[in-house]
Amino acid sequence: MITRNGLLLVFWFLLDKGFLAPLHSPPQSRIGREHHLRGMAGLGLRRHGASGVQRVKRGWVWNQFFVLEEYMGSEPQYVGKLHTDLDRDDSEVKYTLSGEGAGTIFTIDQTTGDIHALMGLDREEKSYYTLRAQAMDMHTGRPLEPESEFIIKVQDINDNEPKFLEGPYTASVPEMSPGGTFVMQVTATDTDDPTYGNSARIVYSILHGQPYFSVDSKTGVIRTALPNMDREMKELYQVLIQAKDMGGQLGGLAGTTTINVTLSDVNDNPPRFSKSILHLRVPESSSVGSAVGKVRAHDLDSGKNAEVEYSIVPGDEGNMFDITYNGHSQEGIIVLRKHLDYENKRSYTFKVEASNAHLDPRFLHLGPFKDTTTVKVNVLDVNEPPVFTKTSYTIDVYEDTPVGTIIGSVTAQDLDASSSAVRYSIEWKRPVDSCFDIDTVEGTISTNEMLDRESNRQHNISVVATKVNNPLLSNKVTVTVNVLDVNEFPPELAVPFDTFVCENAEVGQVIQTISATDKDLPAVGQRFFFKSPREIRNRNFTVRDFGNNTAGIVTKRVGFQRRVQEYYVIPVVVEDNGYPAQSSTGTLTVRVCACVTEGSLLSCTAEAVFLPMGLSTWAVMAILLCMVILLAIFALYVGLRRQKKRETLMSSKEDIRDNVIHYDDEGGGEEDTHAFDMGTLRNTKAIKEKMLRRGTGSEVTAQTEINESTPTTEGSADIIRDYIHQRLQENHLGFSAPPYDSLVTYAYEGDGSVGESLSSIESWMADGGEDFKYLSEWGPPFKTVWRRAESTCEDKTSRKD
């Protein structure tokens, strides 16, 4: 019977004998062991008919547990045999096989338990197969024991050669490197089983590329074998590497790959000129900045190591030329810096130096990385046109110049060796160019018409110079003719100068500097000359020209007395440099003044009030300014005092401690019908009043009776008017009447007013017996008011009595 424990026992036996490599098997199970024993007991009872359990010795027989790959035999390959002690070779037990490849790759004999492989197997595709086996009753098909799992391993053979998966390879190493310099590492892959035999053990070797390179047999690292390999001698190397399995033994399989090794450049070569002398031929007509030749120094290096810098060695005659570098062609371009002249110099010789732009310090010991060559330039004669002595000409001419007057000239020369004669002409481009003419031989320019500055201030004409022996060669120059304005206005003194001289002035003292103006144009560049009139001999003053368009009035004697002569008039002649020259005579008034010792003005006339005190003008102005400031401060002080007094009076009226009540609001007028009721003036109540006149003791009694039953109508206005007139008369005649310059207005509010009467009309009728005692109950501040009110009432009562 087949059990998992039986498989483990067989595996252990084979491992112990060395037939199989260790395999991981399922762990032993107590349940499996129980099933195995149960099956054996049941089978023993059935076979022998005994009533007790009988121990039966169990045994598996497996001749093989692996299969060789790539089997090419005609018969199926025998793998192994399944057998159990319960099988008595009586064909009562049937063996079955299931799992990976069962029935297709592997088959089993149901009676004997022999397992065979039906086809060749490849370990690289699948290295092992997991199968399940079971023993069953041949007749009933009942399993005698549960399934057991086992593995069939495919045994490797050396059927795959090593392969370089990334080849061919490309590598680079700097030239001039020492021996043993690392180049690269290659790795081959063998798909055979590395754990079985030497099928996957690889050894590397070099088949082609010696003696320049070597390879490590175990690691595949490639290194240089020779030192100082020169790229300029050989740049590309092809190396063939072999990888062989079976440790390189005979019969092993091998694979190869190619490695292309390039020597990278280093700057180990200086530039070199192919010729030591270079000859150039340059026409003298070559323009400045044009290329006149090329030089090239060859450098065996490449890339930036081959870049060359060109320069002209200082000295010799190289200042006429310059050199630039063309990175594309690696050439030095010789450029002309100045004009060549065959008649002055016919050849030039200089040296050009070529040097590396990027130096490698490791190779400086090989020598200087530069080279020189000599350049000889021969100037070729060219038949050139005439050359003017100037690039342009400017001529100034006045607008009143007569026709035919020569105003200027131009000059051109033939610098060639033939020295041909030159003829001149004017190229007429515009009608205004006809204003001028030129002598064809001498080159003198004259006016052909009258010039008008107001019409055209400037003329630009082109003069052509042509060689006589070759009329095709000519040259042009521009002549600018500026038409100048005729000097029409004489110069004048800039301002009417009035000055003074001190009584104690000395000889040669400059008392005034003068200048002049001129209405003629242009103002810039004008020149003025100052002098005294020749016909007048002045013994007191003279005019000294400073040469900068200014002059000074200078004293000629000592001592001036104001009492003798107070004023001097000096004539001054001003002349300009115009054409024609214009002049004018101006006068300068000089006043004699008294001065202090230092020369400061003290007094000239009575107009100077403070000058006799020895005060200057600035001092007087300072005094006046101080007086103005003091007046302003005083006015501000007075204003503040008045404002403060007014505020004090107003505050005293509002102080309740004075016990005086002022009524300033008496209500509106007669037209203000909203402020009070006008009907109160029409009250028909009889009014009686007695007035006591002061000083006389006489009593004036005025009584007006108005019938209460009489209704108040518009006709009552007469009654009111009579009442007011009576009151006016009383005030005029009474002792208590106001002053004559005051205006008293009476109005009667009446008892019907809501706010009661506010006027003084009824104040005389007030009852003197009114009790103001309640004011004392309001507190100490109102006791004083109560006493004043009581005394006032008593006074009124005594007056009435």
From TrEMBL:
<keyword id="KW-0472">Membrane</keyword>
<dbReference type="GO" id="GO:0007043">
    <property type="term" value="P:cell-cell junction assembly"/>
</dbReference>
<dbReference type="GO" id="GO:0045296">
    <property type="term" value="F:cadherin binding"/>
</dbReference>
<dbReference type="InterPro" id="IPR000233">
    <property type="entry name" value="Cadherin_Y-type_LIR"/>
</dbReference>
<dbReference type="InterPro" id="IPR015919">
    <property type="entry name" value="Cadherin-like_sf"/>
</dbReference>
<comment type="function">
    <text>Cadherins are calcium-dependent cell adhesion proteins.</text>
</comment>
<dbReference type="GO" id="GO:0005509">
    <property type="term" value="F:calcium ion binding"/>
</dbReference>
<dbReference type="GO" id="GO:0008013">
    <property type="term" value="F:beta-catenin binding"/>
</dbReference>
<feature type="signal peptide">
    <location>
        <begin position="1"/>
        <end position="20"/>
    </location>
</feature>
<dbReference type="GO" id="GO:0034332">
    <property type="term" value="P:adherens junction organization"/>
</dbReference>
<feature type="domain" description="Cadherin">
    <location>
        <begin position="84"/>
        <end position="164"/>
    </location>
</feature>
<dbReference type="GO" id="GO:0016339">
    <property type="term" value="P:calcium-dependent cell-cell adhesion via plasma membrane cell adhesion molecules"/>
</dbReference>
<keyword id="KW-0479">Metal-binding</keyword>
<dbReference type="GO" id="GO:0007156">
    <property type="term" value="P:homophilic cell adhesion via plasma membrane adhesion molecules"/>
</dbReference>
<dbReference type="InterPro" id="IPR027397">
    <property type="entry name" value="Catenin-bd_sf"/>
</dbReference>
<feature type="domain" description="Cadherin">
    <location>
        <begin position="389"/>
        <end position="493"/>
    </location>
</feature>
<keyword id="KW-0812">Transmembrane</keyword>
<dbReference type="GO" id="GO:0005912">
    <property type="term" value="C:adherens junction"/>
</dbReference>
<keyword id="KW-0732">Signal</keyword>
<dbReference type="GO" id="GO:0000902">
    <property type="term" value="P:cell morphogenesis"/>
</dbReference>
<dbReference type="GO" id="GO:0016477">
    <property type="term" value="P:cell migration"/>
</dbReference>
<dbReference type="Pfam" id="PF00028">
    <property type="entry name" value="Cadherin"/>
</dbReference>
<keyword id="KW-0325">Glycoprotein</keyword>
<keyword id="KW-0106">Calcium</keyword>
<keyword id="KW-1003">Cell membrane</keyword>
<feature type="domain" description="Cadherin">
    <location>
        <begin position="493"/>
        <end position="610"/>
    </location>
</feature>
<dbReference type="GO" id="GO:0016342">
    <property type="term" value="C:catenin complex"/>
</dbReference>
<dbReference type="Pfam" id="PF01049">
    <property type="entry name" value="CADH_Y-type_LIR"/>
</dbReference>
<dbReference type="GO" id="GO:0044331">
    <property type="term" value="P:cell-cell adhesion mediated by cadherin"/>
</dbReference>
<dbReference type="GO" id="GO:0002009">
    <property type="term" value="P:morphogenesis of an epithelium"/>
</dbReference>
<dbReference type="InterPro" id="IPR020894">
    <property type="entry name" value="Cadherin_CS"/>
</dbReference>
<keyword id="KW-0677">Repeat</keyword>
<dbReference type="InterPro" id="IPR002126">
    <property type="entry name" value="Cadherin-like_dom"/>
</dbReference>
<feature type="domain" description="Cadherin">
    <location>
        <begin position="165"/>
        <end position="273"/>
    </location>
</feature>
<keyword id="KW-0130">Cell adhesion</keyword>
<keyword id="KW-0965">Cell junction</keyword>
<feature type="domain" description="Cadherin">
    <location>
        <begin position="274"/>
        <end position="388"/>
    </location>
</feature>
<dbReference type="InterPro" id="IPR039808">
    <property type="entry name" value="Cadherin"/>
</dbReference>
<feature type="transmembrane region" description="Helical">
    <location>
        <begin position="618"/>
        <end position="640"/>
    </location>
</feature>
<keyword id="KW-1133">Transmembrane helix</keyword>
<protein>
    <recommendedName>
        <fullName>Cadherin-12</fullName>
    </recommendedName>
</protein>
